[in-house]
Amino acid sequence: MQPQGTIDSKRLEFFSDAVLAVAITLMVLRIDPPVPAPGETLVQAFWTDTSPQIIYFLITFAVIVGFWVRHHDIFVRLGEQTDRHVLVANMTFLALICLLPFGLEFFSDDPRSYLTTAVYAGIMALCSLSMIWLRHAVRGSNWRAYLRVGLFLLPIPFVGLLGGWSPLLWALNWPLSMWFDRLGVNNPDDLDEGRARA
């Protein structure tokens, strides 16, 4: 029998996996097939209209996979039961993940706009912030984890220079993750030490 006020962590993880899968599916469904304008070939229409949408989808897909991996790492450290603090933090993270298809479509409509880039990057940054909250609810966290949030905001000032390609700056996530590992940001032992000090 489950103690009152606790939640089965496996059910929560399975539900989270399903939400992440649905978010990815909704994003790919928003990619418009090429429709050639008069005097334009199908290949030209694909290159100018559809290929940027596919690239934006792939960037967002890679970011969601990164979130999923970190989410899995967090849940590996949970026991069979968890509490409502973890539930609320996890549901906040999932709600923000559900906004990603909207953010991606909004950005895809005008990728050279500061507003659309700020909304898209802002949703990514909020997802990252909620992931830190979830990690803190499970094991504690340290200040270096907040460096990831800044990484998602990085494309905003570069819109004027890079236009619609500014989200490619998120590709820095991988080398910076390796650097964070060296700093102990992703190290579970570092989390336990932070919890012990608190």
Instruction: Count the domains.
Output: 1
Order of helices and strands: EHHEHHHHHH
Low-confidence stretches: 186-198
Beta percentage is: under 5%
Radius of gyration over all CA atoms, rounded: 19 Å
Q: What is the straight-line distance between the termini?
A: 32 Å
Counting DSSP E segments of at least 2 residues, the number of strands comes to: 2
Tell me about the biggest sheet?
Answer: 2 strands, antiparallel
- Provide the residue-averaged pLDDT: 81
Assign an overall shape.
globular
Main sheet strand line-up: 1-2
Structural class: mainly alpha
Describe the structure.
It is a single chain. With 198 residues, the protein is mainly alpha-helical. The chain has one domain. Helix content is 71%, strand content 3%. A two-stranded antiparallel ribbon has the order 1-2. The longest helix is centred in the first third of the chain and has 35 residues. The protein is globular and about 65 Å long.
Gist?
With 198 residues, the protein is mainly alpha-helical. The protein is built from 8 helices and 2 strands. Helix 1 packs antiparallel against helix 2 and helix 3 runs antiparallel to helix 4.
Top keywords for this entry?
mainly alpha; two-stranded antiparallel ribbon; 2 strands; globular; disordered C terminus
